Amino acid sequence: ALDTLPFLLGLESPTSSMSLMLNENPTLHVIARNPGKKSFTVELPPYFNIHAVPIVESTQNTDELVFYTNGWDLYDKKYFPEGAESVPFLGNWEGNYLDFNGSVPPAKLYRTVIDLKKERLLDHSEVVPGLVMEFPTQDVLSPSILYCGAACTDGTSLPGVGICKIDVSKNTHDIWWAEHQIFTGETCSVAKQNGEKGSWLLTLLYDAGNERTSLGIFDSETFGDGPVGRVHLRHALTYGLHGSFEQSK
């Protein structure tokens, strides 16, 4: 919900004027590609969606729609008090980083399945229960393989201290944990050239101890072994949220 008056009067920023409605279910709008088919809506359990990867239609059942998102569980009583109708949003982000430990809810990765024929929700559950993950991306060659930044195992939110590789077709996952005081960012999958098997995974690694940023390069075929190379940048980039890479012309 957005309280527009303080924002219009210049008293608060847009995010400071927002609040999360804890008792309202989010609505998923399913719009068919075929103009001849009707669109419909489905209610999901209370959660706040932050990021989403492209829709994956089920290859095993054509009547199902499967997709993956990451977000906050609004049933988490540590961050969303029981009985409260709403809570403030993140507020105005400026200056120093927030203390993520205890002030920002942990984000989880969810698998959502919709029955297209009966227009109802079949499943909305955590992919790796209990693991805090952010910024899901897909492998450029294998959309069923997802990469996410992984946070500490104690339930703390950002920043990421590892990378999780998830094969949703096999329901398996592998985690690479960064060294002490090194933080991980959003990942980018790049296809290998000349017919080589697998893909490269690129991500920025911020070394807080040495105040240095490196480009970490992973091989999807040996992901669990860690980066096959690191390129140290000339200037340190403090831990960020999102990033992208552009192919050279």
UniProtKB/TrEMBL annotation:
Record has rRNA processing as a keyword: no
The keyword Iron is annotated on this UniProt entry: yes
Alphabetized GO MF terms: carotenoid dioxygenase activity; metal ion binding
Residues annotated to bind Fe cation: H242
One of the protein's GO biological processes: carotene catabolic process
A Pfam family: RPE65
Cofactor note as given: Binds 1 Fe(2+) ion per subunit.
Cofactor: Fe(2+)
UniProt-listed InterPro entries: Carotenoid_Oase
UniProt KW keywords: Iron, Metal-binding
Family designation: Belongs to the carotenoid oxygenase family.
PANTHER family given in the database record: BETA-CAROTENE DIOXYGENASE (PTHR10543), CAROTENOID OXYGENASE (PTHR10543:SF138)
The protein, known as: Uncharacterized protein
